[in-house]
Amino acid sequence: MSNEVNHQVRLAARPQGTPGPEVWEHTTEPVPEPGEGRIVVRVSHISLDPAMRGWMNEGRSYAPPVGIGEVMRALGLGEVVASRNADFAVGDTVTGVLGVQEYVESDGRGLQKVSPTADVPPERYLALLGMTGMTAYFGLFDVGALKEGDTVVVSGAAGAVGSVVGQLAKVKGARVVGIAGGPEKCAWITGELGFDAAIDYRSENVSQRLKELAPEGVDVYFDNVGGDILDAVLGRLAMHARVVICGAISQYNAEGGMTGPKNYMNLLVNRARMEGFLVGDYLPRWGEAGTELAGWLAEGRLRSREDVVDGTVADFPEVFLKLFRGENTGKLVLRLKRA
Amino acid sequence: MSNEVNHQVRLAARPQGTPGPEVWEHTTEPVPEPGEGRIVVRVSHISLDPAMRGWMNEGRSYAPPVGIGEVMRALGLGEVVASRNADFAVGDTVTGVLGVQEYVESDGRGLQKVSPTADVPPERYLALLGMTGMTAYFGLFDVGALKEGDTVVVSGAAGAVGSVVGQLAKVKGARVVGIAGGPEKCAWITGELGFDAAIDYRSENVSQRLKELAPEGVDVYFDNVGGDILDAVLGRLAMHARVVICGAISQYNAEGGMTGPKNYMNLLVNRARMEGFLVGDYLPRWGEAGTELAGWLAEGRLRSREDVVDGTVADFPEVFLKLFRGENTGKLVLRLKRA
């Protein structure tokens, strides 16, 4: 490997608003050799997640910011190509925080071994069978305390997490309304995924449509977007509703800073709660959840859609922006081809 | 009684922003006679509460709005002066929703009999021994899930509810920081009420002071004010914090509508929740809470301060505005003198 090159994308500057090419630096290093007790992974798939935008900001958050000059943090999937660690063999497929690069040297901590098959492509372990599925599962069931018969609304409903949330709610006997952008996404969630209804926020009045589609109010709202849509749903809460805060993609690039939900006093009117969570806190239960998700997937009760873009790490900055333009349907993944 | 007059204050128009004299109508009626099974109460004390501002707005809320032309809704205390109801005797003192008027005719439902003494003045039943105390008790203990050792922050800390919240937190072994406006209020809550610290939001940087006073973060925030102070505290939450939404007095008269908390994503960062409540939902447990509050009051572990203004019902519109100017310390009550 030593005559190969490891292409990397590093954070060059903190973005103001939408991260343009100026915030990235494209570098190369020699492909690493594993230290004692360590492994080298060749990255084949990079996960693109809205949360990555937050990691680029300075300041206190749940994870330290990516430092200027550091390789951009990213989840990914790859193959072990060198190992001096008894827990990993060359040829193992692993997922974890691998970064926006072609190779990573690691002690293996935090990496999970997975087993893609003809039926389960590798990118699915970054989608329904990975952190994405876990986020939907624990957010809806634990934080949202979903009950059979609830009316559930999910925003970003054609996105990676949202599309799983809605399906999980259907599995548990809830009524599900998805909010998504554009007729294709809406048709997909009500058609293939079995949502009861969809609201196209680009062409419809969300508040008015919620009134029609959830006349008794919204019991669980799983929010991926924030902004006006969060306010619209807060205006339609049922008594004792649970608002699950998973993300706020509409706000991450706002140059004037975040806008808060002006309708938050509806939490009082409806004796409702709004609660945030991080999927990493549920790590001890990922096994249990993964088994259940894989079972429902095998039974055809869940579907996982990955929006795979073939490219090189150099394409990462542009592919990443698809998330914020709402251009992906399902889980956005960059599948690496080598230069 | 029939040659006396019942002075009333009615809602004449829905206010835009701060309710000026133009939204009120001063009317008179003959003093009512009780119908069969009913009573007449002569009102002696009118409770002034921020929530009343919300009742003046049109639209869906936890209670129907006061109708245009209706007597303004208000809690109060008074004496039964005529009774055709076996549950009430002439001379009984009662509290409940009596309205901004001198006399009210009622079937007695929703009225509680109370027993003022030399030690317990009647206005206290509108303060610590009334809805105010119940709001603090259930908001802090049930919604806030207070634990010994928690760091508690309360805004509107020298107000009716806030001053009780801080004292209750001290009773349970928490560390308490109060946020109030002006040096007198701050001195009162740390001096007489035993809060650990106070922040004067008019002269201090709330966010900076919270960093100093709650270096490990805020476990329970009891919010009465909303706005910038809510944002400042959201920026200093501890992990698994509970934000209790009781009121948003800084926002009720905002002409451009409410401003939402732009820092709400800190709920995610800290796996925290923000929850609203209404004290009326706890009615079955008011007896239990009242006994406990009265006991702590008798033991000197709690103090109740009532800010009593002597006046007539015609003074109500002006006295009401003291709440929004932060001019009251403790529970604001209008004690009626007769014209």
From TrEMBL, chains A, B:
Q: Which Pfam families match?
A: ADH_N_2 (PF16884), ADH_zinc_N (PF00107)
Q: Indicate whether Oxidoreductase appears among the record's keywords.
A: yes
Name the segments for region: Disordered. 1-35
Q: Which SUPFAM superfamilies match?
A: GroES-like, NAD(P)-binding Rossmann-fold domains
Which residues are in the Enoyl reductase (ER) domain?
A: 17-334
Q: Which GO terms describe its molecular function?
A: oxidoreductase activity, acting on the CH-CH group of donors, NAD or NADP as acceptor
Q: List the InterPro entries.
A: ADH-like_C (IPR013149), ADH_N_2 (IPR041694), ER (IPR020843), GroES-like_sf (IPR011032), MDR_fam (IPR045010), NAD(P)-bd_dom_sf (IPR036291)
**Keywords from the named record:** Oxidoreductase
UniProt keyword Isomerase present: no
Q: What is this protein called?
A: Enoyl reductase (ER) domain-containing protein
Q: Which organism is it from?
A: Pseudonocardia alni
Phylogenetic lineage: Bacteria, Bacillati, Actinomycetota, Actinomycetes, Pseudonocardiales
